[in-house]
Amino acid sequence: MKLKNKKFFLLDKDGTLSLGNTILKGTKEFINTLRKSNIQFAVATNNSSKTGIKHLENLNNMGLDFKEENMIVSLDVAINYIRSQKIKKLFWIANSNVSEYLSHFFIYSEKMPEAILVTFDTELDYKKLEILTTLLHTDIPYYVTHSDIVCPTEKYPIPDVGTFIKVMEMTTGKLPNISFGKPSQYYIDYIKKRYDVKESEIVIVGDRLYTDIQLAQNNEITSILVLSGETDIKMYKKSNIKADFVFESVQEIVNHLN
After folding, report:
1. Over the Cα atoms of the chain, what is R_g?
2. Contact yes or no for 179/146 (Cβ under 8 A)
3. pTM across the whole model
4. Residue of 34, 188, 233, 242 with fewest CB within 10 Å of its CB?
5. What is the per-residue pLDDT across 58-91, written as a single tens digit (0 to 9) for each?
6. Last residue of some domain: 179, 199, 232?
C-alpha cells in the first residue's frame, strides 16, 4: 500500500499535530511534505469546545499557515445534519464562543426546542445539566458532537463529551440518538461530500484508536496510528482495532511520501 498515491489526508489535531498550544515534533516537516507533494489535507478534530476559526487561530499561532478549507470540526458535521432536518429551535450545551456560533444557525430554546445538541462545554455548570436532564425526559432528538471520553492536554486528560454522556445516562437512562464526530459515518459522508473524495483516496492519521483508527474500519479508508498522543504500543497490541500503519509520530510518515 503506497501512501504517496493517496489524494487526501485527514489529520487529527490533539495528540497528533499538537498538544494544547505546543506543536509536536515533525509536524511542520510533515505538512510541508504534503504541500510539496500536492496532496490535499484537512485537520479533523472532534474537539467542539472551539469553532473551526478558533482551531485555525491556534494552529496558525504555531506557524502552520492553514486555511479555512483545511479545518473540519465535529461541530460543523452536527450543524450540517441538524439543518438538513429543518430544525430551527435547538437547546445546546456549549461555551460562550460556540454558543455565539450556533446562534447563527439556530434559535436557542430551553422550553420548546425541536432537538438537543451537547458540545464540549468548557463552561459547563449545574444549571445547564438541570435543563438538559429535564429535556431528556421528553422524546425530542438528542445529539452530541462527539463521544470522546477525555480530551488530551499538555498536563493531563480532562473530561470530554463522553463523560457528559455517561452522567446523563446514569441520570436519565438516555443515550444520544447520534454522535457526529469520528468515527461516525456522518463524519465520513461529510468529508466525502465537502472535498469530493472517495473513501479509497483518504488516509486518516491519528493517535486515538476508538475514534481516528476506528473511522477506517470496514471501509476503504487507510489508517495511520501515531504514538505521540493517547495510544502507546502496549495499548495498541491489546486492542482489536488495528491500523494499516503504526508510526512514532507524523515525522515518520514523511519517508513514505517521498
Report:
1. 18
2. yes
3. 0.91
4. 233
5. 999 999 989 999 999 999 999 999 999 999 999 9
6. 179
- Determine the structural domain holding residue 159 and report its residue range: 75-179
Instruction: Work out the number of other CB atoms within 10 angstroms of the CB of residue 77.
Output: 28
Cis peptide bond N-terminal to 183, omega within 30: yes
Please give the full DSSP string across 79-138, using - where no structure is assigned.
HHHHHHTT--EEEEE--HHHHHHHTTTSEE-SSS-SEEEE---TT--HHHHHHHHHHHTS
Is the Cβ–Cβ distance between 48 and 145 less than 8 Å?
yes
CATH number at residue 237: 3.40.50.1000
Instruction: Give the tens place of pLDDT for each residue, 129-140.
Output: 999 999 999 999
Domain boundary among 138, 161, 179: 179
Residue 123: CB atoms within 10 A of its CB come to 13
Grid coordinates standing for 55?
482551531
